[in-house]
Amino acid sequence: RRAGTGGGVASPEVRRSSSAAAKMADGEEVTLDGRPLHLLRVADLKAALERRGLAKSGQKSALVKRLRGV
Protein backbone atom coordinates (compact mmCIF):
# COMPACT_ATOMS: atom_id res chain seq x y z
CA ARG A 1 0.00 0.00 0.00
CA ARG A 2 1.05 3.52 -0.59
CA ALA A 3 1.47 5.91 2.29
CA GLY A 4 -1.04 8.72 2.04
CA THR A 5 -0.50 12.29 3.13
CA GLY A 6 -4.12 12.98 4.01
CA GLY A 7 -4.40 10.43 6.77
CA GLY A 8 -6.96 8.42 4.82
CA VAL A 9 -6.90 4.74 4.07
CA ALA A 10 -4.46 3.81 1.32
CA SER A 11 -6.05 1.99 -1.58
CA PRO A 12 -4.72 -1.47 -2.44
CA GLU A 13 -2.47 -1.75 -5.44
CA VAL A 14 -2.58 -4.22 -8.25
CA ARG A 15 0.90 -5.73 -8.21
CA ARG A 16 2.84 -7.42 -10.94
CA SER A 17 6.25 -8.98 -10.92
CA SER A 18 9.16 -7.24 -12.68
CA SER A 19 8.54 -9.10 -15.92
CA ALA A 20 4.76 -9.08 -15.69
CA ALA A 21 3.97 -9.35 -19.38
CA ALA A 22 6.13 -12.41 -19.89
CA LYS A 23 4.96 -14.12 -16.71
CA MET A 24 1.28 -13.37 -17.30
CA ALA A 25 1.64 -15.25 -20.58
CA ASP A 26 3.01 -18.17 -18.54
CA GLY A 27 -0.04 -18.09 -16.28
CA GLU A 28 1.31 -16.16 -13.26
CA GLU A 29 -1.43 -14.15 -11.63
CA VAL A 30 -1.57 -10.44 -11.00
CA THR A 31 -2.51 -9.80 -7.36
CA LEU A 32 -4.51 -7.28 -5.35
CA ASP A 33 -3.49 -7.08 -1.69
CA GLY A 34 -1.43 -10.22 -2.20
CA ARG A 35 -4.38 -12.27 -3.48
CA PRO A 36 -4.78 -13.45 -7.09
CA LEU A 37 -7.51 -11.47 -8.84
CA HIS A 38 -9.50 -14.58 -9.78
CA LEU A 39 -9.93 -15.45 -6.08
CA LEU A 40 -11.49 -12.08 -5.17
CA ARG A 41 -15.23 -11.53 -4.93
CA VAL A 42 -16.94 -9.55 -7.67
CA ALA A 43 -17.72 -6.81 -5.12
CA ASP A 44 -13.98 -6.49 -4.31
CA LEU A 45 -13.06 -6.35 -7.99
CA LYS A 46 -15.68 -3.66 -8.62
CA ALA A 47 -14.42 -1.61 -5.66
CA ALA A 48 -10.87 -1.79 -7.02
CA LEU A 49 -12.07 -0.71 -10.47
CA GLU A 50 -14.06 2.17 -8.99
CA ARG A 51 -10.98 3.43 -7.10
CA ARG A 52 -9.12 3.48 -10.41
CA GLY A 53 -11.92 5.25 -12.28
CA LEU A 54 -12.54 2.25 -14.54
CA ALA A 55 -15.84 0.76 -15.67
CA LYS A 56 -17.19 -1.76 -13.18
CA SER A 57 -19.81 -3.52 -15.27
CA GLY A 58 -19.57 -6.98 -16.75
CA GLN A 59 -18.84 -10.54 -15.77
CA LYS A 60 -16.08 -11.45 -13.32
CA SER A 61 -13.69 -12.43 -16.12
CA ALA A 62 -14.11 -9.00 -17.73
CA LEU A 63 -13.48 -7.25 -14.39
CA VAL A 64 -10.28 -9.26 -13.86
CA LYS A 65 -9.07 -8.45 -17.39
CA ARG A 66 -9.77 -4.76 -16.84
CA LEU A 67 -7.72 -4.74 -13.62
CA ARG A 68 -4.90 -6.58 -15.38
CA GLY A 69 -4.92 -3.89 -18.06
CA VAL A 70 -5.59 -6.38 -20.84
UniProtKB/TrEMBL annotation:
Residues 1-28 are annotated as: Disordered. PANTHER family: APOPTOTIC CHROMATIN CONDENSATION INDUCER IN THE NUCLEUS (PTHR46589:SF1). Residues 37-70 form the SAP domain. GO terms for biological process: RNA splicing. GO terms for cellular component: ASAP complex; precatalytic spliceosome. One of its GO terms (molecular function) is RNA binding. This is SAP domain-containing protein. It comes from the Eukaryota. SUPFAM superfamilies: SAP domain.
